[in-house]
């Protein structure tokens, strides 16, 4: 009878560990999927902002009659493969440069196409902030899961790594200046 109890206890322990490992692995995977979806949404919004700024180059060139590079940071990042974190930082630099053209040229500021790009940039700002906050929430939860014992054992075995978080900076001054 005692061998039966020992085998039964070992069976229960093995089943418990198996259930725990499966639930933990599924939780990590679920959060990883959410992170990937959030990254894809951020990437799409950043690409939309990048395309708007790219479109503005011809508008600025035609109205200001300026030769040479316009929004030179834009040209610099076209040739690079940047991750979303770097692209996000660079886009704010380009938006600042975009804004300075409008500040220094009243005709440009009054142009309908230029104004539409400004409006679209302002609208995309709240969207990108919401997406970054969601991404950070999911990534923080994911990081917490894979850092906590005993789930960290499974995370190390499956080679899950901590995810970086977006720094959510206050660009309201820049965005308000576009209005």
Written description of the protein model:
The chain has a single domain (about 15-160), classed as Up-down Bundle (de novo design (two linked rop proteins)), CATH 1.20.1440. About 80% of the residues lie in helices and about 0% in strands. The chain has helices at about 1-65, 70-80, 85-105, 105-110, 110-145, 150-155, 170-179. It starts with a helix and ends with a helix.
What topology emerges from the helices and strands here?
Elements: H1 2-64, H2 72-78, H3 84-103, H4 106-110, H5 112-147, H6 151-157, H7 172-178
Helix pairs in contact: 1-3, 1-5, 2-3
Helix content: over 70%
- In percent, how much strand structure appears in the residues? under 5%
The tally of helices reads 7
CATH topology: de novo design (two linked rop proteins)
CATH level-two architecture: Up-down Bundle
Distance between the termini: 81 Å
Q: What's the main sheet like?
A: none
C-alpha-based Rg, rounded: 25 Å
Give the rounded overall mean pLDDT.
Answer: 85
In terms of structural class, how would the helical and strand content be classed? mainly alpha
What is the strand tally?
A: 0
Briefly, what CATH class?
Answer: Mainly Alpha
Can you summarize this structure?
The protein has 179 residues and is mainly alpha-helical.
Which short descriptors sum up this protein?
179 residues, mainly alpha, de novo design (two linked rop proteins), 0% strand
